[in-house]
Write a structure and sequence with these properties.
The chain has ten helices and 14 strands. It is α/β, with parallel strands linked by helices. β5 and β6 form a beta hairpin. It is elongated, with a radius of gyration of 21 Å. About 45% of the residues are buried.
């Protein structure tokens, strides 16, 4: 449940409730808004059976949370979350673009991409070091060497790094090189991994599972948040349906739904969402129009020679076109790029 405090509630009122809840062994999250403070209570509500919270100084009302996702929901935190990493913001007025190759292949490839992206105003370099692939015979990534090459290229040109972690071991490696962890669709319900990422406090892009409902997706975010890491960026990347023309079915209705029921920022991956480079730009336009806070896009110097996901990757020229197109849409809806 949440405890909604009166606008006139004092710091001591809030401090007293916080102390009482923790004494009872309950989890507490305090969200201070522009007008009033909301205190989220996590745990067995039966522990409060003999505690008349509604009568305590500063309390306006108690609101039960019926959704299984509590920390991620707007009932818990009505104001939208903006995640800040160094000089970058995710969830603010300016759109966020994360771009780079599906997989890090070589120093030359990732450096060439990083320099290009920096020249276009992109702040986040994405690239895979560990690549969970459907086939065991497909390129699996350079592992820790991939993280190192990503970090070197990003540092050289002044970008932030986004890369996928797939296990506890990869967390231990990536933490030295990566600014934002990515949890891929196949690991969205790897609950041990989610808990470990929650304990790191490092921002994380949480992709929607291949056939996951929105409730399951937000419940996965809850695992991370329950460990104390609230820096979560949700990513709609398409779901498995009966349609075979595209790689996945990009569910853009998820964007306004998330905006309504969750305070977490949401970006869209039109590359995995379609699997076809020609569809990436039009679906990017649609994603921004739907209210997405940004995009994560696969960009490669030469997609025809890419070791992973070449058919859905943009080259530098087509990525330029994408940026021009989303800038037009952003201006119409009051966003910036």
């Amino acid at each position: 449940m949440v405890i909604v405090m009166k606008p006139s509630a004092t710091k001591d009122d809030i401090k007293n409730i916080d102390a009482l809840l923790k004494k009872l062994g309950l989890g507490v999250h305090i969200s201070t808004g522009s007008e009033r403070t909301i205190i989220g209570v996590i745990g067995d509500k039966r522990l409060l059976a003999d505690t008349p919270l509604e009568l305590m100084p500063g309390v306006d009302r108690l609101v039960p949370i019926v959704e299984p996702f509590k920390l991620a929901g707007r009932t818990f935190k009505p104001e939208s979350t903006v995640i800040r990493i160094k000089d970058a913001e995710i969830g603010g007025k300016k759109l966020t673009i994360m771009a780079g190759p599906c997989a890090v292949e070589s120093q030359e490839q990732i450096m060439q991409t990083a320099k290009f992206l920096k020249s276009r105003g992109v702040q986040f370099l994405r690239g895979g070091a560990y690549k969970p692939r459907t086939s065991p015979y497909s390129f699996q990534g350079l592992e820790e060497e991939g993280y190192r090459l990503l970090a070197e290229a990003a540092k050289d040109v002044g970008l932030l790094v986004v890369s996928e972690i797939v296990s506890i071991k990869s967390i231990e490696q990536a933490i030295e090189y990566v600014d934002i962890f990515q949890i891929g669709a196949r690991n969205m319900q790897n609950f041990q991994l989610l808990r470990e990422v929650g304990r790191t406090k490092i921002p994380v892009v949480l992709k929607r599972g291949l056939a996951s409902t929105i409730e399951e997706w937000l419940s996965a975010a809850e695992y991370i948040m329950n460990e104390g890491n609230y820096n979560i960026i949700l990513c709609e990347r398409g779901i498995r349906t009966f349609e075979t023309y595209t790689r996945n079915t990009l569910d853009l209705s998820a964007v306004p739904i998330i905006k309504e029921i969750s305070h977490l920022p949401i970006i869209v991956d039109p590359s995995h969402g379609t699997g076809k480079w020609k569809l990436v730009t039009p679906m990017s336009r649609a994603a921004i129009a739907a209210g997405a806070d940004g995009l994560i896009v696969e960009v490669h110097p030469d997609p025809t020679s890419a070791l992973s996901d070449g058919p859905q990757s943009l080259n530098f020229e087509t990525f330029d076109t994408l940026l021009d197109e989303i800038a037009k849409v952003a201006g119409v809806i009051g966003r910036e790029w």
